[in-house]
Amino acid sequence: MTTPEPDFQTDRAALAGRLKMILPAHCLLVDDEDLRPYECDGLTAFRQLPLAVCLPESEAQVIDVLRTCHQLGVPVVARGAGTGLSGGAMPHAQGVVLSLARFNKILRVDRKARLAVVQPGVRNLAVSEAAAPFGLYYAPDPSSQIACTLGGNVAENSGGVHCLKYGLTVHNVLRIRVVSIEGEVFEIGSEAPDAPGYDLLALLIGSEGMLGVVTEVTVKLVPKPELAQVVMASFDDVARAGDAVADIIAAGIIPAGLEMMDKAATAAVEPFVKAGYDLRAAAILLCEADGTPEEVAEEIGRVTEVLRAAGARELRVSQSEAERLRFWAGRKAAFPAVGRITPDYYCMDGTIPRKRLAEMLSAIADMEHKYGLRCANVFHAGDGNLHPLIMYDAAKPGEWRWAEAFGAEILEMSVALGGSITGEHGVGIEKINQMCVQYKTPELEAFHRIKYAFDDKGLLNPGKAVPSLHRCAEYGRMHVHQGDLKFLELERF
Amino acid sequence: MTTPEPDFQTDRAALAGRLKMILPAHCLLVDDEDLRPYECDGLTAFRQLPLAVCLPESEAQVIDVLRTCHQLGVPVVARGAGTGLSGGAMPHAQGVVLSLARFNKILRVDRKARLAVVQPGVRNLAVSEAAAPFGLYYAPDPSSQIACTLGGNVAENSGGVHCLKYGLTVHNVLRIRVVSIEGEVFEIGSEAPDAPGYDLLALLIGSEGMLGVVTEVTVKLVPKPELAQVVMASFDDVARAGDAVADIIAAGIIPAGLEMMDKAATAAVEPFVKAGYDLRAAAILLCEADGTPEEVAEEIGRVTEVLRAAGARELRVSQSEAERLRFWAGRKAAFPAVGRITPDYYCMDGTIPRKRLAEMLSAIADMEHKYGLRCANVFHAGDGNLHPLIMYDAAKPGEWRWAEAFGAEILEMSVALGGSITGEHGVGIEKINQMCVQYKTPELEAFHRIKYAFDDKGLLNPGKAVPSLHRCAEYGRMHVHQGDLKFLELERF
C-alpha cells in the first residue's frame, strides 16, 4: 500500500464560501495580499500562496475547518509561528493554511505535579516565563524559542542546546489533544509515566502535521537548577575538538549543553556579539554543567580534566551568570551572525555518531572546495547534531542550486556515517529527497501505511516529510553525484 | 474501521506439515506433552495450549514461519522468557508460539559509542554483565531481570526500580530490527539521537507483539555510577509516606530509585530476607542516590532533610554496598515473600499521579474489607506506579473471581485518579477489559487503524492488548459494580 500523491483541484470560490459559513470574518483570509505573509516559513527559498488562511479561535472551529476540508478534499497545512527551517509549514497551492496563532493561552501551571497545560500557539519561552515564579521551566529550548510555538515544537519534535541532558520535545510532553482530519478529537498520553496501548504520543510528536492537528499540549516542567557554569575550551585542531566531545561522554558526564563552533563560525559571531571567543582557535567547545553548587563544581572539575587531557589549548570557566550568558549569546546568535557576512546561507541539520565528528568535518572542508562555497559549522556536538551553514548568494544565477547540492551531499554523508538527515529541524519539503537515502522501501511503506491509517485521503500537509516510492525511484535514477555536478557547472557558467 | 475479531480455524495437520518443511526437527514442537511448558506466561491463571511451538535459530527461519502463518491465516504469539505478568505471551488455541529463546547472542558491545547490539532472546541481566568490564550497564531493571529477555522488554516497554531516573525501555533502545507478519524486514531507529519520519521505534516498543517480531535490539549503555547509597525512612502513617514522595520530587531531586512498601509487605519480606526493615512502621520508603561520592553525599543530605520535614520517624542510610544490596533485596523479593504467606496472589500494576498516592492507599484499604481479601502494597513510588498484591486462595471456589474484581476496581480507580491501568507489565489478556475504561472510542479506533496498517489479517497476538469496540460495548453493559458484587456473593456462599 502506498499513499497516492493526489492531484488536488480546488474550487477556490466554493471553498471560500464554505469557510465563510463556519468562521467569522476576522478568522479568515482569502485575498492574495493578506495571504502573502503565509507564503513561506523559515525556509524562505520555498514559497507558495495558499487559497485561504484560517485563524480559528476555538477547538470547535478547528473541527469545522477540518471537516469541511475533508468533505471538499482540500489540503490542510497547519502552522504555528512559521519559524520552521525545513518548509514544513509551506502552503499547498490548492489548500488552506490552518494557523493556530490564536490558541495562545496558558491554561494551567501545576507546581506540585510539575506540569503546564497550554494551547499550541503559546510561545516556547512563554511557558518557562509562566513557570518561573515556581522555580520551574520547560527544558527544550530551540534557538527560536522567543518566537516558536509549542504546537510547532510538537510537530517537529524540537530540541535545543539543552536536549542532550533534558531530551527532545517527545521526552517533555505528557499529553496532547489532537483533532483528526475527519474532525474527531482524541486525547493521548497521561500525567502518569506510561500509557497502555500503542505509543500514539510518540507517533504524533514529530509527525510534521501529517497525522492530525494538536489543540492542547501538557508539558513537563523541571526545576530551574540553582547554578549553571560553562567551560569554554579552545582547540588548534578541529578533529581534536571532535574527539574531546566523545571523551566527555565516554567519561560518563552528561553535560547540560555541549556545543562546538569552528573558526568560520566564531569569526562571524565575535565582532557581532563580543562573546569573548578565542579567535585563534580552529574550534571552540562550550560545555555547561548545572545543578547544586557542589554538583556543578564537581562536574566542571571533571570536564576540565578531560578537556585538558584531550589537548585543549585554553580553558575558561564562566565566573558569573553574566559571563555564562555571554558565552551562550554567541552560540545562539550564530545563525544571524553568519547572515551578516553572506547574502544568504543554507542551514543543514544532519546527525552523526559522535565518534565520527572529525571525519565529517574533514569531508565538509573538501566539499567547500568542490562546490566553491564557504561553510561555517555549528554543532550540538554532544548529540552529534550538526548545523553546517552553507554561505551563498541567491542573487547569483544558479548559486542556490549549488548550495542545495552541497547540503544534500552533507546529509547523504550523515546517513553513510550511520547518522540521519535531520536532528531537530524536520524533513518538511527541504529534505524529502534525502528520505530516499535514509530509508529503504519497507520503512517507507510502513510510514505510508501509518499515514493512511490517520488520513486516507492524504489531505494533511501533502508532499511533505515522507516521499512516495515513485518519487524515490525517480530520485535514485537522477541522483548520480558527478552527473549532478556537471549539470550545475553548465548552469553556472 | 475496526479490526475484526476473526474466528480462526486452523488445520493442525496441514500447519504441522508446512512448518516441518521450513524448520529442522529440533526447532519445532507439536506434541501436547512438549507444548505444555508454553501454555502460560507469568500470569498463570490463564492457560492455553498452542498447536505448535517454533524455535527458530535464524532470522531467515523467523521470516519463513511468519510468511507461512500469514499464508495459512494462522495466529502467531511471539514469546521471550515467558516471565510477563499480563498474559501477553499466552498462546492462541488455533495458533503458533514463536519462541525467540535461541536468539541468545550478544553481537557487539561498543564501549566508545556506549551501546550493545543483542538478539532478542538475550537475558536483561546478561547485557549488563557483558558491559561490566567497560564500567557500563543497561539501565532498565525489571524484577525479573535474571530471566526476562530484551525482546520481551521491548514488547512490554519494561521498567524497573531505576526507571524514575533512567527511563523505561523506550528511552534506552536506539534501534530494532523487525520482521512483519508478511515476512518483510525493516530497521527502525539509529545510533544518532533522533530519526526522521514517524517515530516507529516508540510505536513498536510496548506494542505487545501485535505489530511485528523483533530480531535484533540495539540498546544504550550507561556508566556504572561510582557510588550508590540508599536512605530507608519509616513512617507511622501511610498517607504521610505518600506525601513525602511528592515532596522529594517537588524539591527537584530525581533519585535513582524511590520505592515504598506498606506494613503488610514489609511483614511478609522481613522474616524471609532479613533486610533490616522497620516492622513497626506503617510504611517505609527506600530512596537511592547514585553518582560520584560528592554528588551522592549532597543528594543524600537533601533527601534526608526533606524526609525529616515530611515526618519520617526513623532514617537509616546504607553504610556499605552490602547493606545497600540488603535494603534492595527485600524490595526485590517482595513478590515471592508474599507468595510464601498466601496460597496465591494477584499482582496489579496501576499508575496514578504521585500526589494522589495517599488517597489510593486509603481506597485500597476500604476494598480489602469490601472483598474480604488482604492486600500488600509495593510501589515504584517515584513514578506513581503501584503494585498491590491481592492475596487469595485459588483452591477456594470463586475466590479468584473476587481477587479479579478487587484488581479491576483498583485499576478503574487508577484511571479515575488520572492515572493508567498499567505502568510496566502491559495489558495482555489480563487488563483488556480495563482498556475500555482507560480509552474512549476515538483512541481505540486509532489503535485499531494502526494494527490494521501492520497486520491487516489480525494474526499477531490476537485478542491481546487492544479490545474490540464490540467487546467494550459488552463490558460497559455488564459492568455495574454492585451487580458484579451480588453475583460474586451468590457464587461464594
From TrEMBL, chains A, B:
Superkingdom of the organism of origin: Bacteria
Names of the cofactor(s): FAD
Gene3D superfamilies membership: 3.30.465.10, 3.30.70.2740, Vanillyl-alcohol Oxidase, Chain A, domain 4 (1.10.45.10)
An example Gene Ontology molecular-function term: FAD binding
Keyword Flavoprotein applies: yes
Domain FAD-binding PCMH-type: 46-224
Keywords per UniProt: FAD, Flavoprotein, Oxidoreductase
Transmembrane stretches, start-end: none
A Pfam family this chain is assigned to: FAD-oxidase_C
Protein name according to UniProt: Glycolate oxidase subunit GlcD
Source organism per UniProt: Dechloromonas denitrificans
Taxonomic lineage from the root: Bacteria, Pseudomonadati, Pseudomonadota, Betaproteobacteria, Rhodocyclales
